[in-house]
Amino acid sequence: MSNVTEKTTVNLLGKEANLHQQVLASFPLCDVTEDDLTQNPRFCKLLVLLAQHMDRTGLTASLKAELEKLCFCWCFLQTEQNLQSQRRQWLRTEVLHRGLQEMIQDHHVRKAHVTEPPDQNMCFRRPVNKTTPDLQFHETMEKCLLVAQCVRQLDPSSATNEEQPFVFGLTPRHVKELTPPDKDVQRMRRALPKQLENHLRQKCLHLLSYYQPECETESEGLKTVKLSHLSALLDKEKTRAESLRGTCRENAVLLQRQSQVYLCELMKCIQLLQTLILDHRLKIQTDLDRSKLDYLEGKCELVLQKLKAETVEVQLDTYTPDSISAHRKIREKLEAELKACRAEKQAAELKLTSFEILGKEFKALADEYCRLRSEIENKKWALAELTHVKS
Questions:
Q1: 181-218 per-position pLDDT tens digit
Q2: Cα–chain center distance at 360
Q3: What DSSP character marks residue 127?
């Protein structure tokens, strides 16, 4: 049985000629020769099975995966530390650059708000040198910053090997010629740390005044002490704000979930009410409608009877029995005359209809007849008037 297994393993892995070479290649650190493998076939089989679970260095597959994972984590930590270092360096440079720009901006603002007192004796005024050390310091620093910014803009890109064309033919060397004299630059560099420190201190004091307005009336020493603890307080407030923000997010998620649960329960209640309405109320709706109809009919009949009674009461208050009977007779006579007039109108309409059947020639004769009748009536009237005048 064991011989059959060995032959099956050999057939699966390849020919016997290169089996020993494959085993030796899989374990280069093992001091084994091809003769040893030939004399010990079971040991060769064991090495073949081990080669499926181990690499050339003797590590198992799981251990190798863990080591690769640890190496990846270590590389990631190194990259993260390098990134944080680069980020801190960039932030330090950016803070210094913005601080210098703010100093220049504050200088321009102060310069714009300074007003000279009016002088009545302008002709006897002694010339004054307006270039003060503070003004020269800020002008030198502004020029240096502008020159450095222009040089940086004019430098070709380091990301490509191709040289980019310069703007208006200017090169960094042309711009560097505008740098202030070395004496002024050295004087500016010596005074820069103190000026920058004062500027940053003023910014910190403004931040402290904004954060704690009550400290504006305190002494400089107490402000300095509070200023040394300001970063810790801001970190504490930032941590508190982040905690509150996280709590707000959690509350928002909880509120959303509760709203969804509430809406689900509300929908279930609505469905239950619909079921109650459809299953219970509709069964007695017919009886309710019939009772309501009977009630409305009775109420309508009562209103009609009340209207009749009010009409009779108004008639009794307005007319006497004799006038009511006279009005009734007049009404009957008028209705009879109206009936006769309607009958006469109907007969006339029938005659007109029969006349219209005769055509347009009869219409001309009827018009001529009407004209003659009108003339006869006029002559009769005139004759009667003449007879009345003679008599």
A1: 888 888 888 888 888 888 888 888 887 788 777 777 77
A2: 84
A3: P
Residue type, position 62, single letter: S
Q: Which two tokens stand for residue 148?
A: 């450095």
Q: Which tokens in the block code for residue 270?
A: 């609505």
Query: Quick one: which of 183, 197, 200, 92 has its CA closest to 137?
Result: 183
Cα dist from 157 to 75, 162, 165, whole Å: 30, 8, 11
Q: Residues of the chain with pLDDT > 70: what percent? A: 80
**Domain boundaries defined on the chain:** 2-58, 321-390
Sorting pLDDT into bands at 50, 70 and 90, what band is 118?
very low
Query: What's the chain's average pLDDT?
Result: 77
- DSSP string computed for 80-93: HHHHHHHHHHHHHH
Q: Is the pLDDT of residue 335 over 90?
A: yes
Beta bridge partners of 60: 54
Helix extents (H) in the chain: 2-13, 16-26, 34-39, 41-51, 61-113, 133-154, 172-176, 182-211, 220-228, 230-276, 282-318, 321-358, 360-390
Query: Beta-carbon neighbour count of residue 208 at 10 Å?
Result: 20
- The pTM assigned to this predicted structure is 0.41
Six-digit token pair at 72? 């990846």
Residue 302: pLDDT over 90: yes
Residue type present at position 182: D
DSSP 279: I
